[in-house]
Amino acid sequence: MEKDGFFIGNMDRRITVLRKATTKTNTGAETKADQEIATVWAERKTASSDKKLDEKVVALNVVLYSIHYHPDIKNENIQDLYVVDDGVEFEIYGFDYIGRKKYVKLKCQLRE
Question: Which of 11, 19, 42, 95 is least surrounded by CB atoms within 10 angstroms?
Answer without folding.
Answer: 19
